[in-house]
Design a protein that fits this description.
- This protein is α/β, with parallel strands linked by helices.
- It folds into three domains: 80 residues, Winged helix-like DNA-binding domain superfamily/Winged helix DNA-binding domain (Arc Repressor Mutant, subunit A), CATH 1.10.10; 111 residues, Periplasmic binding protein-like II (D-Maltodextrin-Binding Protein, domain 2), CATH 3.40.190; 91 residues, Periplasmic binding protein-like II (D-Maltodextrin-Binding Protein, domain 2, 3-Layer(aba) Sandwich), CATH 3.40.190.10.
- Helix content is 43%, strand content 22%.
- The chain contains ten helices and 14 strands.
- The strands form five sheets. Strands 4-3-5-14-6 form a five-stranded mixed beta sheet, covered by helices on one side. Strands 12-7-13 form a three-stranded antiparallel beta sheet. Strands 1-2 form a two-stranded antiparallel ribbon.
- α1 crosses α4 and α5 packs across α9.
- The longest helix is centred in the first third of the chain and has 29 residues.
- The protein is rod-shaped and about 105 Å long.
- 29% of the residues are buried.
């Protein structure tokens, strides 16, 4: 590897035909210039410069090396200028993954507003309830709900979340009594299924400890929105984030059950690959999402529900 500083010193010596002039131009001593040129020639195994008491001229190998180095330095300068421009006016593409219902009803409208404010940033939104591999699918950030397993990903909390178990009045009126999570074995539970899904077990806080309860049912779907619709129409119980069933909770289409067993301290979080120097465009979007979610009506609904 050849340091870009050594290449810069060499090119300035050739341009100015002098070690001392190159040193003054780069604000380093003549001795440092000489040392860098010597080190470069040792690495390359060839003499790059003819030195006399009056001038410095490139050798044949030096002329070839100078031509290549100039091209490299120009590309490096162009790249630096582009990075500086991106800092001043962020642009490019951000690929985002979000749970289907949350992504469609809450995140998509916010991203549309973000695009209006930052027209040079393009958004690629993937709404899916499956687990996404951030690295393989080149996702810049994934929005996740609920409890997250330990991982090496960078995680940023955005806004509180709360998960309820609920059913319609019609279903609850004609179904067995439901006093504890263990009574779910006598109920029709609406299941979210896809490769890697664990939602055929629902989580509850029992005696201060989070437990996963196995549930069964005759209806399952790969969309949480479908499950909510089925629950509203009396087909069974659903366990959902308030963010994805806020309307049904507000108009009483769904009634919460097992409230004293509801998991606590959930949140919507942004999950990102570990990267040094995360792009400014991603940081801007994270701040934007956090602010918009904080002032979203559903966040207030959650605060009221928990109070």
């Amino acid at each position: 590897m050849y340091e870009i500083d050594d290449i810069t010193v060499f090119c300035r010596v050739v341009d100015l035909e002098s070690f001392s002039a190159a040193g003054r131009d780069l604000r380093i001593s003549t001795a440092v210039v000489s040392s860098r040129i010597h080190k470069l020639e040792q690495k390359l195994g060839v003499r790059l410069l003819h030195r006399t008491t009056r001038s410095v001229r490139p050798t044949e190998a030096g002329e070839l090396y100078y031509s290549t180095c100039q091209s490299v330095l120009n590309q490096f300068a162009d790249c630096q200028n582009e990075l500086d421009r991106m800092k001043a006016a962020p642009e490019g593409v951000i690929k985002i993954s979000a749970p289907y219902a949350l992504g469609r009803s809450v995140i998509a409208p916010i991203l549309g507003e973000f695009k209006n404010e930052y027209p040079s940033i393009d958004i690629r939104l993937d709404v899916t309830d499956r687990a996404v591999n951030l690295v393989e699918e080149k996702v810049d950030l994934a929005l996740r709900q609920g409890y997250l397993p330990d991982s090496s990903w960078v995680m940023r909390p955005l806004v509180p979340d709360h998960r309820i178990t609920a059913g319609s009045d019609d279903y609850l009126d004609r179904s067995a009594a439901l006093k504890t999570p263990y009574d779910l074995k006598n109920h029709s539970c609406l299941l979210l299924r896809f490769p890697g899904s664990t939602r055929f077990r629902w989580q509850f806080l029992i005696n201060g400890k989070l437990e996963s309860i196995a549930i069964t049912g005759g209806l399952d779907a790969s969309s949480s929105e479908v499950l909510t619709d089925w629950a509203i129409n009396g087909k069974g119980l659903v366990q959902q984030s308030i963010w994805t069933c806020a309307g049904a909770l507000s108009d009483a289409s769904l009634k919460p059950v097992l409230q004293k067993f509801e998991p606590q301290n959930l949140g919507i979080r942004a999950l990102m690959p570990e990267r040094k120097g995360r792009a400014l465009k991603v940081e801007l979007l994270l701040d934007y999402l956090a602010e918009k979610l904080k002032t979203h009506p559903t966040n207030q609904l959650i605060q009221d529900y928990l109070s």
